[in-house]
Amino acid sequence: MRILITNDDGISAPGLAVLEEIARDVAGPDGEVWIVAPAFEQSGVGHCINYVKPSMISQMGERRFAIEGSPADCVLAGLGDIVPGDVDLVLSGVNRGNNAAENTMYSGTIGAAIEAALQGVRGIAMSQFYGPQNVNLDNPFEAASATGADCVRRLLAGAEWGGDTYKMFYNVNFPPCPADKVKGLAAVAQGYRGDGRMGVHPQTAPSGRKYLWIQGSAQGEPTAPGTDVKANVEGWVSVTPMRCDLTDHSAIKGLRDVLDAYDG
Q: What would the pLDDT profile of 164-205 be if each residue is shown by its tens digit?
């Protein structure tokens, strides 16, 4: 098996080392793990691509490359130029912090999995929820390290990946607890915190110029039953199937009633 891994925290991030261990476990001794990750942190860039400027590639070691670009750029570079032959799986992460609920829409970690799916390659985004039970551990990624490879194997063996149009990809969030407190893997929907929107914090520099810091909101607020954040805070690894189709299909019929007739 040939696996491409990336992230949005940057090529030197500790979570990428955790993901490399997961990928090597899944690939096995005869497999290949290729690392193509951003040269600098790209958190919050979503599915951004460097469409109007080139991305410099630097080889950092055997099968290890840094890209001056986004996570989606890294996937494009890996699939289109760096990795010889077909890639069987793209893994993105392990992100430092959760990418559940509203965070999903901002995440560069998710953006890499989206690009994999658009390219017709199986993609899994993986993120480690932080909280009081794990933030001060010697390895805050303990839950991801302990359960990540098993999660990937189970998805590869039995989960749905196809589709006539947009392919499936998966969003995995590991709970904010030590490994021995993880209860298992839960299939859940994307949640909605309600207060999970990003905001701005204005500040004035000594020069008198105004700056804005983008800031998030409280991360531990549970979402509805059967959704990601609630499962995570209760000790479960959340696994959410996703597609790139953003259409609300349930609203189409009602919308037709207020617009002009169309029979295409």
A: 899 999 999 999 999 999 999 999 999 998 776 667 788 998
Residue 70 to residue 25: CA distance in whole angstroms: 26
Contact yes or no for 199/217 (Cβ under 8 A): yes
Q: What is the largest CA-CA distance in the chain?
A: 62
Using alpha carbons, select from 149, 160, 72 the residue that is nearest to residue 116: 72
State the DSSP string of 186-219. Answer: EE-B----SS---EEEEEE-TTS-EEEEEE---S
Amino acid of residue 17: A
Question: Please, what sign has the CA dihedral across residues 192, 195, 200, 203?
Answer: negative
Q: What residue ranges do the domains of the chain occupy? A: 2-192+222-256
For residues 66 and 38, is the Cβ–Cβ distance under 8 A?
yes
What's the predicted TM-score (pTM) here? 0.93
8 is in an annotated binding site: yes
Give the helix ranges, DSSP H, for the chain.
Answer: 14-27, 71-77, 108-118, 142-158, 228-233, 252-256
pLDDT band at 222 (very low <50, low <70, confident <90, very high): confident
Asked if residue 9 belongs to a known ligand binding site, the reply is yes
The answer to whether 181 and 238 are in contact (CB under 8 A) is: no
State whether residue 94 is helix, strand or coil. strand
Helix (H, G, I), strand (E, B) or coil at 49: coil
Extract the tokens encoding 138. 């010697």
**Domain range 2-192+222-256, CATH architecture:** 3-Layer(aba) Sandwich (3.40)
Cα–Cα distance, 20 to 143 (Å, whole number): 15
